[in-house]
Amino acid sequence: MLADNTVVTMSSFPIYDQSGVPTGETCVIDPAEFSAVISDRLLHEAVVMYGSNQRTGTSKTKSRAEVSGSSKKMYKQKGTGNARMGNKRTPIRRGGGHCFAKRPKDWSYRLPRKALRRAAAMAFASKVRDGELFVLKSLTITEPKTKPIAQMLTKIGVGEASCVIGVAESSPVAWKSVRNIEKCSLVPATEWNAATLLRNRYLVVTVDAIERFRARCARPAV
């Protein structure tokens, strides 16, 4: 059984502008506000679920009843000097059908909604705990250009590592600016999940996106 790792310390992150220059401000985030513990088992189950739901399940092969060919016995049982043989569609002959033919299958399933929301909160808390979070004051893009985003990622220290740029609201212009950067994606805070956050090394978020995610997944005050 996988152990749970307790989150106990608050973390302070410098805030950058959208050109990658530090503004001199800091953003203090308490991981326990999102999740007091990080359950490896729940995160694993959530990531496996999202991966399973992406399977197409359209693989199919023909059984011996579906391949072409006569169902007549190829030759009589005895007297020919050959090994006994049934029809040409038998699985042991070249071109025959499969013994256990593959059939289309729906691999998708769902974990409880509260479990998935908690897994997303744990994934965000793990990014905070591990220091794999970069905070932007804002991200305002008026025209689709990839170069400013790539330069900003280089300046703040992401480099060529995989990352998710988290924003408060989806923007077609911002999405077009990010889509050509390898191993980088733009995801609104309302669509963050455990798989999206954990499959990428870094999380680059705006202050507004953190507040939006906090409103969605933060633990209620006791």
Question: What descriptive keywords fit this protein?
Answer:
two-stranded antiparallel sheet, 30% helix, 222 residues, 6-stranded mixed beta sheet, elongated, single chain, alpha/beta
What this model shows, in words?
This protein has 222 residues and is an alpha/beta fold. Helices cover 30% and strands 18% of the residues. The protein has helices at residues 40-53, 113-130, 146-156, 172-178, 194-198, 207-217, and strands spanning 4-6, 11-16, 22-29, 37-39, 133-136, 163-167, 184-188, 202-206. Strands 3-2-5-8-6-7 form a 6-stranded mixed beta sheet. Strand 2 and strand 3 form a beta hairpin. The radius of gyration is 27 Å and the shape is elongated. It starts with a strand and ends in a 5-residue tail after the last helix. The model has no long low-confidence stretch (mean pLDDT 89).
Rg from Cα: 27 Å
Number of helices: 6
Backbone structural class: alpha/beta
Broad shape: elongated
Helix content: 25-40%
Share in β-strands: 15-25%
Mean pLDDT: 89
What's the N-to-C terminus distance? Answer: 29 Å
Strands, total number = 8
Strand/helix succession: EEEEHHEHEHEHEH
Strand order of the largest sheet: 3-2-5-8-6-7
Give a quick account of the main beta sheet: strands, pairing sense, barrel closure.
6 strands, mixed
Low-confidence stretches: none
